[in-house]
């Protein structure tokens, strides 16, 4: 069941934990789909964390504007991988809201997914409490939408346009050997189902 989520920081907090992810990636040039799987760990970075100051410095932003963030690590594989090919990496995010509700603003990263330099993208939350991220790189752009179908199921769609044109759908399931975060007043079950979901 979709959740009511007050702001992007609450969305990040709900995302903390260990997840398994199943991915279907559609390569538009080849007109073929590729399956993949990964293990993801998300940890919260609290306001004042030295790593957030580093992200701010790399993106030429003031650390005082960052309300919080997260550290994400992942390890995965795709069906077309060559022998020895690795999909292990990590990144850190910092949120700078641009509205009073904390539902839109800048998402700072210490490094991008498509390019390894620091990058600032835009985030906003839609009417169904999905988190939408848009990032423009030098040679490509990406659009991602994340949403919770329940406290332990997160979904994502993404498109990449530029050098590599692809679209993907991912389903992430929380590993329940770790208790899920408590659903607070900022994240209560919604009364209606969202029409579209990660």
Task: Characterise this structure.
With 198 residues, the chain is mostly beta strands. The protein has a single domain, classed as Beta Barrel (Lipocalin), CATH 2.40.128.20. It is 9% helix and 52% strand. It has helices spanning 8-15, 50-58, and strands at residues 3-5, 17-27, 32-45, 68-78, 87-97, 104-109, 119-125, 131-136, 140-150, 153-162, 166-174, 187-189. It has a 10-stranded antiparallel β-barrel with strand order 2-3-4-5-6-7-8-9-10-11. A two-stranded antiparallel ribbon has the order 1-12. A hairpin with a 6-residue loop joins strand 5 and strand 6 (104-109). The two termini are 13 Å apart. Pfam families: CpeS. This is Chromophore lyase CpcS/CpeS. Covalently attaches a chromophore to Cys residue(s) of phycobiliproteins. One of its GO terms (molecular function) is lyase activity. Its EC number is 4.-.-.-.
List the helices and strands and how they pair.
Blueprint: E1 3-5, H1 8-15, E2 17-27, E3 32-45, H2 50-58, E4 68-78, E5 87-97, E6 104-109, E7 119-125, E8 131-136, E9 140-150, E10 153-162, E11 166-174, E12 187-189
Antiparallel strand pairs: 1-12, 2-3, 2-11, 3-4, 4-5, 5-6, 6-7, 7-8, 8-9, 9-10, 10-11
* Top CATH class: Mainly Beta
Decide which structural class fits the backbone.
mainly beta
Mean pLDDT: 85
CATH second-level architecture: Beta Barrel
| Amino-to-carboxy terminus distance | 13 Å
Number of domains: 1
Can you write the helix and strand succession as a string? EHEEHEEEEEEEEE
Shape: globular
Helix content: under 10%
Task: Give the CATH superfamily.
Answer: Calycin beta-barrel core domain
Proportion of β residues?
Answer: over 45%
Q: What's the story with the biggest beta sheet?
A: 10 strands, antiparallel, barrel
CATH topology: Lipocalin
Widest β-sheet, arrangement of strands = 2-3-4-5-6-7-8-9-10-11
Number of strands: 12
**Spans of at least 5 consecutive residues with low confidence:** 183-198
Family: Belongs to the CpcS/CpeS biliprotein lyase family.
Pfam family, one: CpeS
Keywords: Lyase
EC number: 4.-.-.-
């Amino acid at each position: 069941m979709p959740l009511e989520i007050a702001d992007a920081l609450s969305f990040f907090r709900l995302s903390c934990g260990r997840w398994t992810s199943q991915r279907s990636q559609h390569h538009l040039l080849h007109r073929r789909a590729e399956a993949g799987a990964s293990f993801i760990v998300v940890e919260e970075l609290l306001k004042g964390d030295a790593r957030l100051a580093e992200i701010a410095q790399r993106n030429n932003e003031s650390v005082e504007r960052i309300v919080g963030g997260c550290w994400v690590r992942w390890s995965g594989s795709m069906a077309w991988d060559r022998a020895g090919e690795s999909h292990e990496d990590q990144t850190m995010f910092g949120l700078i809201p641009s509205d009073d509700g904390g539902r839109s603003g800048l998402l700072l990263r210490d490094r991008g997914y498509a390019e390894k330099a620091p990058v600032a993208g835009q985030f906003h939350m839609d009417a169904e409490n999905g988190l939408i991220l848009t990032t423009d790189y030098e040679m490509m752009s990406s659009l991602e939408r994340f949403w919770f179908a329940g406290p332990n199921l997160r979904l994502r769609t993404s498109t990449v346009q530029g050098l590599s044109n692809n679209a993907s759908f991912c389903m992430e399931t929380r590993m329940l050997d770790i208790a899920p975060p408590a659903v607070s007043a900022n994240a209560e079950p919604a009364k209606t189902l969202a029409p579209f979901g990660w």
